[in-house]
Amino acid sequence: MKAPPFRYLRAETLADVFRLQREAGPNARLLAGGQTLLATLAFRLSDPDTLIDITRVPELQGITQTADGHIRVGALTTHRALGADPLLRRHVPLLGQAVPLIAHPAIRNRGTIGGSLAYADPAAELPACCVALGATIITAGPTGERRIPAADFFTGLFLTALTDSELIRAVEFPQAAVGDRATIVELARRSGDYAMAGLVAHAAAGAGVRLVYFALGPTPVDARHAAAALGRGPWTPDRIKAAQGALDQDLDPPADQHGGADMKRHLARVLLARTLAGFDPSTKAAAA
Amino acid sequence: MSTEVNVTLTVNGERVTRRVEARRHLVDFLRLDLGLNGTHTGCEHGSCGACTVRIDGVIARGCLVLAASLDGAAVETIEGLSETNEIRDLQAAFIARNACQCGYCTPGMLLTAAELLREAATSRVAPSREAIREHISGNYCRCTGYQAIVDAVESVAKTRAGQS
């Protein structure tokens, strides 16, 4: 279908956004990359009377290194820029692995990290990456800013901690330390389709591994029991098997259009074995 | 306040000014307001790739961008790329390899393949068939089974890289 009629307004600054929101009323939506919103409007799943275009707001742009050793990524950063930026390639290399998995090139040229996090699709890659890396989401509203740990940001199916008057301003990522490893794997029917199951694994040097699944629940799932069963390594066949078994305590995947809960659990085990093999090739023989 | 917006943008090198409904996406603007029918609507929600155009130098889904939001932007369509001869070799390869049957996906495929080839040009190494398939994975074709399309893109990639 065609989108329903609406007014189109453009904000030039962050203050503009809040003023226009106030003037437009509660049935206004913010428009950034539009890669989710415009599809939603085409299906008439949403019926705003006003769209406020925020793509020119400078306070939402840019990738910088903070004084305390984080990389701060503006919410309007496109997926394409996320994958290409030299600071991120150097200090947050996981994102360069995640970006090629997001949708398709034409979508990546306009879709933004702010949009991905705000829409919180359970099958999206970036929310799980943010949780696995311990990122912080910085929100802005008329009364000021908040800093929300990624683990606390995703509260339910397509739900986040954002209030109605807030938007995401930036995301801060810790810089990878020497010896840190992070990887992302996903299974999808067609390359670029929404994942049937996905896993982000982050092993900080000298510490255990953090396992964050996506497409296996309403929000990213931090598989703590499986991670505890793995410990710091080495990941022997017994440990991997124990971790795969422990996943049943972490995951309660709902059935969806791809398959039932049992299939999802199976895929979760497969992803765990593949991920660990990727981290440490000697585990590949063990996991086979 | 009105649901219509004045917008001025460049399309295939020509400056155009129109008053459009805010809800009109770029593909409808191109086809209905400007008479440029080379860009096609398929799914109209971003999945099929038939609507792929170039905005400010990079490919985008024409169905997922509002014409009203493109004030000051530069849009290129299949008509423009054809006129400049930028993809002449790609178009010839599509014909030679029978990569165009009904033609519905073809403009989107050409826009998408052109971006891959342009990005590969800097490395002087032709993308592999796997890389080609990955790059066009966002473009559906119901006729060819994709093999001939991959053949066509691969042959052009190799020629451009001096490898054929």
Indicate the percent of residues in helices of chain B.
25-40%
List the secondary-structure elements of chain B in sequence, H or E.
Answer: EEHEEEHHHHH
DSSP helix count of chain A? 13
**Given the C-alpha coordinates, what overall shape of chain B results?**
elongated
Taking the alpha carbons of the first and last residues of chain A, their distance comes to: 48 Å
Number of strands of chain B: 5
The helix/strand class of chain B is alpha+beta
| Quaternary organisation | heterodimer
% residues in beta strands of chain B: 15-25%
| Overall pLDDT confidence of chain B | 96
Structural description of this entry:
The complex is a heterodimer of chains A (288) and B (164). Chain A is α+β, with helices and mostly antiparallel strands. Chain A has 13 helices and 14 strands. Chain A has a 5-stranded antiparallel β-sheet. In chain A, a hairpin with a 4-residue loop joins strand 4 (63-65) and strand 5. In chain A, helix 10 (224-230) packs antiparallel against helix 11. Chain A is globular. Chain A starts with 6 loop residues before the first strand and ends with a helix. By secondary structure, chain B is an alpha+beta fold. The model of chain B has no long low-confidence stretch (mean pLDDT 96). Chain B has a 5-stranded mixed β-sheet. In chain B, helix 3 crosses helix 6 (147-160). Chain A binds chain B through residues 1-8, 10, 31, 34-35, 38-39, 41-43, 51, 53, 55, 80, 100, 103-107, 109-110, 190-192, and chain B through 1-3, 5, 21-23, 25, 28, 44-46, 49, 52, 55, 58-61, 63-66, 68-69, 112, 115, 133-135, 137-139.
